[in-house]
Design a protein that fits this description.
alpha/beta; 5-stranded mixed beta sheet; 39% helix
């Protein structure tokens, strides 16, 4: 089994791949910047064992991170548990991806991973919308070249900002089945503004990217916050859960010794 880890600002996602590239046992733990390698090792081992996997039996590990201070910490934790060297998606790692940005080395490793997966799927041009703490848009042109990206605030960031910056607005949860457009109270109005607003922003960005990349644009939607917005979007998208993990698997296969 291969252990793949996606380190985001709010959540760390773990997944196990078998030899047939099938993803098993997706789990999430909270991102805690002050935790040590030993603490993360304990957490990772616990969630893997809970799902029937023994870390010491992993034959490989690969990770990407948008939290630089945690990259080495979690890499140490993984290597401690799995007794193998972990591939950290950073400068110098083989991806097979052509990147046309001002500074390719500064591109987020999560964007690289989703772009690698989108390029491998072959439906180009493509746009990957990854909704997490930030909502990112990663664009590949018809030749599979990463042509650029967009970074916008995520759903939870918008909700937190309303509560923190507006004195009369409460802290609310978005854990509800449906949210009507026109709220009849403050809580419903906030939920509508955040969810319908995020969905409309994504729809609008997709439309703008289609104008630049072509009418045959394939759009993938992924990320932990994607389910909250998907129901309110009008654009046709292909949902693909854990796209970063699949990209990590492909990068690991390119770099395995």
């Amino acid at each position: 089994m291969l252990l793949a880890i996606n380190i985001q600002n709010s959540t760390i996602t773990l997944g196990c791949f078998d030899e047939a590239a099938k993803l098993h046992a997706v789990a999430h733990i909270a991102t805690e910047s002050r935790h040590t390698a030993d603490q993360y090792a304990c957490q990772i081992e616990s969630v893997l064992r809970l799902r029937g996997f023994v870390p010491a039996e992993m034959h490989g590990a690969v990770l990407c991170s948008v939290v630089p201070m945690l990259s080495a910490v979690i890499q140490e934790a993984v290597e401690m548990l799995c007794c193998c060297e972990a591939v950290n998606v950073s400068s110098g790692v083989k991806t097979g991806l052509s990147i046309q940005t001002d500074n390719p080395r500064a591109l987020g490793s999560d964007l690289v991973c989703v772009a690698v997966e989108a390029a491998a799927l072959g439906r180009l041009p493509a746009l990957v919308v990854d909704m997490n703490t930030a909502t990112t848009f990663t664009a590949l042109n018809a030749r599979g070249v990463l042509a650029g990206s967009i970074i916008a605030p995520g759903i939870q960031i918008g909700l937190d900002a309303l509560h923190e910056k507006a004195a009369q607005l409460p802290s609310i949860s978005l854990n509800r089945k449906t949210v009507r457009l026109l709220g009849k109270n403050t809580v419903d109005a906030m939920a509508s503004g955040v969810l319908h607003g995020a969905a409309s922003m994504v729809d609008g960005m997709i439309a703008k990217c289609r104008q630049q990349l072509g009418d045959n644009l394939t759009v993938y939607l992924t990320g932990t916050e994607a389910p909250m917005a998907a129901a309110y979007m009008q654009e046709k998208v292909q949902r693909m859960d854990d796209m970063v993990l699949y990209g990590l698997y492909r990068i690991w296969t390119k770099n395995r010794k």
